[in-house]
Amino acid sequence: MSNPPKLRNDCFALPPGVHWTPVDEALAHLRQGMTVVTGIEPVPTVAAGGRVLAAEVQANRANPPYANSAVDGYGFAHAALGDGAHSLPLIDGRAAAGMPFDGLVPTGSAIRILTGAMLPKGVDTVVLEEDTAVANGHVSFERGLKKNANTRPIGEDVTDGEALLCEGHILRPQDLALLSAVGVETVQVRKPLRVGVLSTGDEIRELGTPVAPHQIYDANRPMLLDLIHNWGMEAFDLGHITDDAARVHATLTDGATRCDAILTSGGASAGDEDHISAALRNTGTHNLWRIAVKPGRPLALGLWDGVPVFGLPGNPVAAFVCTLIFARPALMTLSGAGWRTPRAMTVPAAFAKNKKPGRREYLRARLNADGHAEVFKSEGSGRISGLSWAAGLVELEDGARDIKPGDSVMYYPFAEFGV
Ligand code: AMP
Ligand code: MG
User: Fold this and answer.
1) Is the pLDDT of residue 125 over 90?
2) What's the distance, CA 256 to chain centroid?
3) Cα of 369 from ligand 1 centre, angstroms
4) pTM of this prediction exceeds 0.85
5) For the chain, how many structural domains are there in total?
6) How far is the CA of 288 from the centre of ligand 1 (A)?
């Protein structure tokens, strides 16, 4: 199978001269630059949960594959019912699921039938057991039953050959039920996107190693690795490195041989110690995206040996939000799942806030018992605990807003970001 084409060298280029790029513009540029980079492989349906479909899937069989009874009861031909109360002689035999009745049910007679049983020849209607009385070899029931009552016609749900799921769909548990029901044994899916995660910073220490008073634990790497995992991608731990140009170089070069994309955190601004930016600058594909967003700092974007590198801010809150808003849809596109735009709920605010124009803001938020969005007590971007407190994000548009309790705001549950 041929490999998809590589990304274009200018895939992260922004128009020159713009100082602060609005979020929507940044997203539009990102979307333009990203294409699927993963190969295709066949996988048995039973093992395909969480995988991305590489092609549309069609049914190999109808569902249901044969007309059958929806209830336990008695089956007969509707045409033979007269005008009075119904009393039909029962024939010998029974139709059950997996044990069809092979004979013909004569017009004017009825047969015992159970849920899921194929309708025998001569049966088009079933009366529910609870609505009948059986005595002297006859089944009696009230008038008023419609033709085909309590039956499921062949193909009622899915017809043979029908298109079911489209390319880019991420298979969920219920999709595996559908594909199995219609006999799809194997699906063509994308190979999982391999995403490397790298932390940088002289002050950062790995959990489980001793920390000096001036050092902090690496909070970003476990978070980013787990996000990747949540998105059905393959996470590669590229570890933590100090702010050292040679090590940044070597680690990105190694990562690029094993990964389809790399997320780094820290060192992405334009300062002396911003070694991710410095390294990417030498590739000729580097772009420092100053996006009008809070929380955020510049994003450093570039290609390292053809592999897209998303240089996220070091601050964990900013790293998290920027990953959800910018990196996720880009990674989804690279993976074959296509650009994903989260859908917001419009809910009343449980807070007040006067917001200045000029940038979009994402607040750590959750719904209170009334379904109103409350926000974390602090907008401090160092307050990692607010991410755990929150169940989603409130998005405040680029312009000014003077929000009073009860005013409508946009709320994105984390589930909209696959978290
Ligand atoms: P930087 O983007 O490298 O300037 O880092 C911004 C802030 O985020 C600094 O306070 C860093 O100490 C902090 N930071 C950077 N990387 C991490 C990390 N992996 N875990 C927790 N905090 C970090
Ligand atoms: Mg740093």
Assistant:
1) yes
2) 26
3) 35
4) yes
5) 4
6) 18
